[in-house]
Amino acid sequence: MAKARINLEDFGPVSTFSTLLIGLLIQNFFGYAPWPVIIFVLIGIYDGYRRMWNISAKLEDEKDERRN
pTM higher than 0.85 for the full model? Predict the structure, then answer.
C-alpha cells in the first residue's frame, strides 16, 4: 500500500491557535474586547477547513491515479 504524499507545506503557519494568539495580542494592546479574538478564531477555523479540503482533494486525486 502506497503512502500518501502530503508535505509539511500543507500545514501552513496559520492555525486556530496562532490566530487566537494574534487576537489576544491585539486585544491586550489596543483594548478591544472580545472582537479580535472572535474574528481571528473564525479566520483560523476557516483556514483549517480550507486546508483539510485541499488535503482531501490531493488524496482523492492520488486515489484516482492509482485506479487508472
Answer: no
Taking the C-alpha atoms of residue 59 and residue 15, their distance in angstroms, rounded to an integer, is: 21
Cell, residue 44 = 483560523
Task: Give dist(CA 44, CA 27) in Å, integer.
Answer: 16
Half-sphere exposure of 2 (CA within 13 A, CB side): 9
pLDDT digits (tens, 9 = 90+) for 25-48: 888 888 877 888 888 888 888 888
> Could you give the 3-state DSSP secondary structure of residue 32?
coil
Alpha helix (H) ranges present in the chain? 16-30, 35-67
Domain ranges of the chain: 15-55
**C-alpha cell recorded at residue 54:** 485541499
